[in-house]
Structures are given as structure tokens and as C-alpha cells.
Design goal:
- The protein has helices spanning 11-21, 63-73, 107-112, 118-134, 162-172, 181-200, 244-250, 261-271, 280-295, 305-319; strands at 27-33, 40-46, 51-56, 82-86, 96-100, 105-106, 142-143, 206-208, 217-221, 227-232, 239-241.
- It is an alpha+beta fold.
- It folds into 2 domains: 11-100, Phosphorylase Kinase, domain 1, CATH 3.30.200.20; 105-319, Aminoglycoside phosphotransferase (APH), C-terminal lobe (Aminoglycoside 3'-phosphotransferase, Chain: A, domain 2).
- The strands form 3 sheets. The protein has a 5-stranded antiparallel β-sheet with strand order 1-2-3-5-4. It has a 3-stranded antiparallel β-sheet with strand order 6-9-10. Strands 7-11-8 form a 3-stranded antiparallel β-sheet, with helices on one face.
- It is globular and about 65 Å long.
């Protein structure tokens, strides 16, 4: 690795990072990472052998919220260490967080190579972390608007009305690329039928990650080859509400889960202190319709668009 930075970042950005954030360390290598829908992530390596992730927010600014949440849960949930956060964009002209690089194997890759024996143990590892996240309470439900982490009383964009949210998502999205008109009308009808289940989730005040799935979990091998979660990434959608949102998310695509995972996940979650009401699976699937509908607003070439449409089709088939 050479002394000169091998990077596509603007030289002025690198200079600000070196002098104001990295204590004089020089960025010598850079690699773009996949990341949140509203952010851009870049892996930085310095001449002092340290690695960091620069997370910038050119679209939706959730910088202050993410930084505050990661600091809040750092003593109980494995998250990247926040080194610096600039939610006002004073240093780089746009908001950013710099975190220490969290090493680990993406859970998607672990699942791909998992055996039938691995499923129950992975379910336990993931469920324990999720129960710990849900143990954080805020006193009321709502969305976070800043680093104070006080839940807002008024939810944005129909988030308190499943039918209206689904209708709005279909109207502005690309569902026509995968779902027929009849299927879209059936999805609205399913949302209407699921509304009582959404109401059953109540005004819970648990910390909800809201994008808790294999792509946002890093794993490391622990004792006796048992996997452990090394980092929970991408907190941009987090809010205060029912933890069943996260269960619906995690179990959304059963074809991607290893054998035994789904069966053991609920028991491991309850054993770790998580609470599951009666009909929790139905409620979690009803809540997950918010996310599935939102995925249908993405571009048809988005990697999750086709999977979301297929999941919708499967649920519609089950309800016929």
C-alpha cells in the first residue's frame, strides 16, 4: 500500500478528515461499501493501520439519530463504535458519521453455507441480540427526529394507517412491473384485513431497528465454532414501537433461512427475555406489510424489489 491516498474522495474531504477527525492520520486506501438506502458508505484505511467507515447522508439525514442510537445501545448490543458525527454537515458540506470498522462475516454468507445443525444455534445468537435491542424502552411510541431520541407524536407518511400506506406505495412505486392490477387490489384488501392485527401491536415503546435482517448483521465464530453477532448495522429506520416489526423483517424470506432457524427463533427470543403475544406470527407479518409495500417503491432493478413482489404474491396466495 503506497503512502499516497488511493481514493476517489475529494482531496478537500480527505484533508478535513485528516486534520479535524483522524488526528493527523492519512487515508491511504478507500473502498465503497453497500449500505443504507439513504446513505453512502466508504471504508477508509489510514497510514496508521486503522480502518473506519465514513457514512454520508446525501438524501435523508438520519445522522444524529443513528449516532445517538449506537451510543445508547453500545453497552448491550454489538454496534460499530462512533468516532465522530456531524449531523449539520459543517465539516464536509453534508452530514456524516465516522465509525470504527466492524469486522465480521455477513449473515447472508453464513446462511448460505449453513447446515441443518447450524440453524438452531444461529437462531439463538440472532434472537438474543434482538431481545436485547427490544429491552430498550422510550416511554411512548413514535419516530425519532433528532439525537435527543424523543419519539414524535405524529408518524410521517401514513405510518399509522396500513391501508393508506399500501395505497400510497402502490401509487408512487413500480408495482406494475411485477404485480397485476388484480394483485395490487388484493394487496390493498389484505392490508385492510390485516389492520386489526396491526392495531393489536398496540402503542409499544420498544426500540425497533426496523431493518433487522441478514444483510445488516455481521457474525463471528465464537467458542466451539458457535456463531455470534459481531455488529448490527444501519439504524436509519429505527423508531419506538412494537418489536414484532423486527421479527416480521427477520423471518420475511423463509427461503433464505437455514433449516431449523424459523422453528427455534421464537423460543430463543422468549428465552432471552423477549415477549411474544398470542398470534405473534400473524401480527408480525401484518406489520411487515409496511416494509414490503415500501420495497415496491424501489426501482425494479433493486435487488429486493423482485423478492418483495414474490413475497407479496405468496401471501396473497395463502389468503385466497
Amino acid at each position: 500500500m503506497s503512502d499516497a491516498p488511493d481514493t476517489s474522495l475529494d482531496p478537500d474531504v480527505l484533508d478535513v478528515l485528516r486534520t479535524r477527525v483522524l488526528g493527523g492520520a492519512l487515508v491511504v486506501d478507500e473502498r465503497r461499501l453497500s449500505g443504507g438506502f439513504s446513505s453512502d458508505n466508504v471504508l477508509l484505511r489510514t497510514d496508521r493501520g486503522k480502518s473506519f467507515v465514513l457514512r454520508r447522508y446525501p438524501r435523508r439525514n438520519t445522522c444524529a439519530v443513528e449516532a445517538a442510537l449506537m451510543r445508547l445501545v453500545a453497552d448491550r448490543v454489538p454496534v460499530p463504535e462512533v468516532v465522530y458525527a456531524d449531523d449539520g454537515g459543517e465539516l464536509l458540506g453534508e452530514p456524516f458519521i465516522l465509525t470504527r470498522f466492524a469486522s465480521g462475516v455477513p449473515l447472508t454468507a453464513v446462511f448460505a453455507g449453513a447446515s441443518e445443525e447450524d440453524g438452531p444455534q444461529l437462531a439463538q445468537a440472532v434472537a438474543e441480540v434482538l431481545a436485547e435491542i427490544h429491552s430498550v424502552r422510550f416511554g411512548r411510541s413514535g419516530f425519532f427526529s433528532d439525537g435527543a431520541l424523543r419519539p414524535d407524536a405524529a408518524p410521517p407518511d401514513h405510518h399509522d394507517d396500513l391501508v393508506a400506506f399500501v395505497e400510497a406505495s402502490l401509487a408512487r412505486g413500480h408495482a406494475d412491473a411485477m404485480l397485476s392490477g388484480a394483485e395490487q387490489r388484493a394487496l390493498v384488501a389484505l392490508a385492510a384485513a390485516s389492520a386489526p392485527l396491526v392495531a393489536a401491536a398496540g402503542d409499544a415503546d420498544e426500540l425497533v431497528h426496523s431493518d433487522f435482517n441478514p444483510k445488516n448483521l455481521l457474525m463471528r465464530p465464537g467458542d466451539h465454532g458457535r456463531w455470534r453477532v459481531s455488529a448490527v448495522l444501519d439504524w436509519e429506520y429505527a423508531f419506538s414501537g412494537s418489536g414484532l416489526f423486527d421479527l416480521g423483517n427477520m423471518l420475511r424470506f423463509p427461503e433464505d433461512l437455514p433449516p431449523g432457524f424459523t422453528y427455534h427463533f421464537a423460543g430463543a427470543y422468549e428465552k432471552a427475555g423477549g415477549f411474544l403475544p398470542e398470534r405473534w406470527r400473524e401480527i408480525s407479518e401484518a406489520l411487515d406489510l409496511f416494509a414490503l409495500a415500501d420495497l415496491l417503491t424501489r426501482s425494479p432493478d433493486h435487488p429486493l424489489f423482485a423478492k418483495a413482489a414474490a413475497a407479496v404474491g405468496h401471501r396473497l396466495t395463502r389468503t385466497r
